[in-house]
Specification:
By secondary structure, this protein is mainly beta. It has one domain. The chain contains one helix and 13 strands; from the N terminus they run αβββββββββββββ. Strands 1-13-12-11-8 form a five-stranded antiparallel beta sheet, with no helix packed on it. A four-stranded antiparallel beta sheet has the order 5-4-6-7, with no helix packed on it. The chain has a two-stranded antiparallel ribbon with strand order 2-3. The longest helix is centred in the first third of the chain and has 20 residues. The protein is globular. The termini are far apart.
């Protein structure tokens, strides 16, 4: 009798464990998106204060947004800011209300497949998480006579979003319609084309 009772208990426990295992929610699909011609205008420069609203972007929707809170990153000229930390203090910067952070990883877009949370930093009054300036962050500025802004190969931008998910990005072009051989005297600038992958499950791998 004891043997039968133990056998029944074992069956019940096994069934309970199986039910527990199947209650885990399914993972959401990882998004892989190409964004073309995201316009990031600015005014000023050349010794004058830089002004103009940042173009705010949300990874989950793949869309520009005008929301004051629900944005992940924002663009103005060559500057990219995150919705986390504090303002650098430039004119027309939006308030940071989220948990976004970023870093730049060296490698190919395919090879960068995991987030290192120890490298994530937020914007601050001493600088942006994605550094500005030629060869400091994502781009090189060639100066005269070509005056070209060119994405640096092998620079992958890794982000924590404003609501604690993750994304990685490679910038392909800074010129309208992403010409293969851009000419600053012909092609309009401040038009970003980029690939990104968004991990909507809160885990650190892509």
């Amino acid at each position: 009798m004891k043997t039968i009772k133990l056998f029944i208990l074992l069956i019940l426990l096994t069934g309970f464990y199986s039910c527990e295992k199947t209650t885990d929610p399914p993972l959401n699909d990882i998004l892989s998106i190409t964004v073309s011609n995201l316009y990031a205008p600015q005014s000023g420069g050349q010794g004058q204060p830089i002004t103009g609203e940042f173009t705010k972007f949300e990874f989950a929707t793949g869309q520009i947004t005008t929301s004051e809170t629900d944005w992940d990153i924002a663009f103005r000229g060559t500057s990219i800011i995150v919705n986390g930390g504090t303002s650098l203090g430039t004119i027309d910067e939006p308030n940071r209300t989220g948990q976004a952070a970023a870093y730049i990883e060296n490698g190919t877009f395919v090879s960068v497949n995991e987030v290192d949370p120890t490298l994530l930093i937020t914007d601050s009054d001493s600088g942006y998480a994605i550094a500005t300036g030629s060869d400091n962050g994502w781009y090189n500025y060639s100066g005269g006579p070509s005056y070209l802004i060119t994405p640096i190969p092998g620079k992958v931008l890794v982000f924590r979003t404003n609501d604690n998910f993750y994304a990685k990005m490679e910038i392909l072009s800074y010129y309208e319609n992403a010409p293969s051989d851009p000419d600053s005297s012909v092609h309009a600038s401040r038009f970003y084309t980029f690939n990104y992958i968004y991990q909507p499950n809160g885990i650190l791998t892509f």
